[in-house]
Amino acid sequence: MDTIALILSIIGSLNWGLIGLFRFDLVAWIFGGQTATVSRIVYALVGLAGIWCITLLFRRRSLMAADDT
């Protein structure tokens, strides 16, 4: 699950980079516009993956704290 979340987060960050630098939304271009159902599903999955990746920060800290004891 962590790997899938990281891949989706990377895809999302690359898409946002393209939007910021070139005003080009790759996801919308591939799937037929921002309001297309598939595009909205991809956006939602990327958002959920980002939320999941937040948990990686806390799990890493708890693992490091456990290693110190």
What descriptors fit this protein?
single chain, mainly alpha, 86% helix, 69 residues, 3 helices
Structure notes:
The chain is an all-alpha fold. It has one domain (2-68). Helices cover 86% and strands 0% of the residues. It has 3 helices and no strands. Helix 1 (2-22) packs across helix 3. The longest helix is centred in the C-terminal third of the chain and has 32 residues, at 37-68. It is elongated, with a radius of gyration of 16 Å.
Largest sheet: none
Percentage of residues in helical conformation: over 70%
Secondary-structure element sequence?
Answer: HHH
The overall pLDDT average reads 91
Number of helices: 3
Q: Return residue spans where pLDDT drops below 50 for at least 5 consecutive residues.
A: none
Radius of gyration, Cα only, in angstroms? 16 Å
Number of strands: 0
* Domain module tally: 1
Report how far the terminal alpha carbons are from each other. 28 Å
Bin the strand percentage.
under 5%
Indicate the overall shape: elongated
Based on secondary structure, the structural category is mainly alpha
